[in-house]
Write a structure and sequence with these properties.
The complex is a heterodimer of chains A (about 425) and B (about 280). By secondary structure, chain A is an alpha/beta fold. Chain A is built from 18 helices and 9 strands. In chain B, about 70% of the residues lie in helices and about 0% in strands. In chain B, helix 3 packs parallel to helix 7, helix 3 packs across helix 10 and helix 5 crosses helix 10. Classes of the chains: A alpha/beta (about 425), B mainly alpha (about 280).
Amino acid sequence: MKKLVSLFLALILALGLSIPAMAEGTTLSVAAIETAYGSEIWQEVTAAFTELTGIQVDLVTDKNLEDVISAPMKAGDFPDVVHLATGRPAALTETLIKENLLEDITDVLSMTVPGEDKLVSEKIAGGFTESSLTNPYGDGKTYMAPMFYSPCGLFYNAGLFEEKGWEVPETWDEMWALGDTAAAEGIALFAYPTAGYFDAFFYALLYECGGPEFFTQATNYAEGIWDTEEAQLAFDIVAKLATYTEKSVPSNANNDNFTKNQQLILDNKALFMPNGNWVIGEMADAPRAEGFKWGFTALPAVTEGGDRYSYTWFEQLWIPSEAANKDAAKQFVAFMYSDVAAEIFAKGGAIQPIVGFADKLEGDNKIYYSIYDNGAKAALGSFAATDPVEGVNFADTVFGTINSLVSGDKTQEQWIEQIKTDSDLLRQALK
Amino acid sequence: MCVLPAVLLFFVFMILPTFNIFRMSLYKWGGFSSNRTFVGFENFTKLFRDMKFLQSVENTLLLIVVVSVITMSLAIIFAAILSREKIKGQNFFRVVFYIPNILSIVIISAIFSAIYDANNGMLNSILALFKGADAEPVYWLGDQSIVIYSLAGAMIWQAIGYYMVMYMASMASIPESLYESANLEGASRIHQFFHITLPLIWTNLRTTLTFFIISTINMSFMFVKAMTSGGPDGSTEVFLSYMYKQAYTNSSYGYGMAIGVVVFAFSFALSAIINAITKRDVLEY
């Protein structure tokens, strides 16, 4: 009898647990990385989405989002929408690209933005859905939606330049001359937060040295591409820059101490660093030299009057191919390009790549986002996706080795040789 | 029947995962999809040609040797001094030595990052007193020939107190009469240490040595993760940090598991070797 009672009670409990789930409509699970822009913007945006569509959203935000969602994903429990960019140390997005686990969202581009009458493709600014950052397999299909763009370039203390009467260099020759002048005053020309920050720098440099066609070939590991004059020019500039870099930089070029390298700019110990505009928020409370004023410039040109590039860094939003609510997820992606969402994001400092949106910006943000109006060209793209090649991490090979160039532990020739070897291996594994 | 739950738990939580690691090391797999390709021992053959893996082996071995030898020696010496000698503030030292053990690795890493800082760090400030303020600073965490020893320094500082307390406990159980008779026969302090203290704590020493060496493999991962991220340019990569990078950052889960298998075999072999070479007859008193 006791057994029967227990069984009955257990049955009631199980039924009780399942009833709320059956009664509710679709609940969209959204996972978003919490960055310098904060998590409030996501709470507001998801609330606005629910208000408009009636679809409930279960939101998860975390600074280490990979740690939160990886384990459930391995167990088959995938979020419906994930906002997590490529280029992070845990490389979860890259892993899913390599594993073909992203949903094709090309059809979202032809959807109408919820609450508006325009198509998504009409709202997203030109070029943003054409690079390998959104179309990783180069098959014309979009798998990731572009979010929160930020021009990357060289940040410096404009106040120091005014005080010393120095001009911001427009060519690399002027850069080296300024490096010698600053060295005489005990200031290094260059610093970088971590070697990983060279990605935006190096991509823009590849554009400057060889143009868009060369960039595409280089990022697709074309045979012999690293033996060309254009590649040699890019290598020479980076290697020379390494000799002008503040010597303590490699000591702090890691995930925990990189702000010490950024502090070098605020303390007038180094002139330029490659970064994105999030650095301003990141260093907002840091002490700084008197008269400090953030300045921002595109990379100097290779030749007088040559093209200058600023890399456009942006984050990505994607739908896992194993997501349970794909239709609602696609509506959510489309909603990201609505004026309502863009304005909520902009309050937190995150700017959506929407046509004409940058014109509405005011204050500091206007300076950074108007860089392309002032003659700099936009560089977009990254190294193409490949199947995993065991033991080969191209970002470490190309960018990580720069630490060794600065400390003198490796030569430029060793660096180039390793790039060629790894590039050959990756070419065979191209998707 | 009584041991069945324990056996079951041991099987589910120890044997099964270990077996799974061995199985996954034979696949090419990214970790998330159902796409797994059986590649046999290919991951292992690639592993032994991978220079970055070999560097991580070299770094791990160096840390095991340097950290174990120095930590063990200092812990025994300090334990002997604190338990055999009468010095002022004995309890104070006991507490001070033990404190690093209750701090988290992240805090210790932050402390040592500050000590090792090239521009404002304590070590370079002290060195500047001798070398002059204009001298080139030592890049404790930037110079690739030094950085692994800098990590070792932090690891030693963290571990000494714990092992010292363990040895003090076992030294306390040595009967005082042995030392008294040694004194009467005119044996020096150092002679007493090598002929009474050390042989009588040998069993404890053996056990802790095995523990310590295995824990160094784990601890080195935490220190590397919190202090250098394996940098600069992979110069502080150790077994587990490289395994993590391959399994996750490089989407090569199967390859990462192959590294796991090597680490497993290595730890097992090392424990066996240490057990064999430190085997002595147990002394009774």
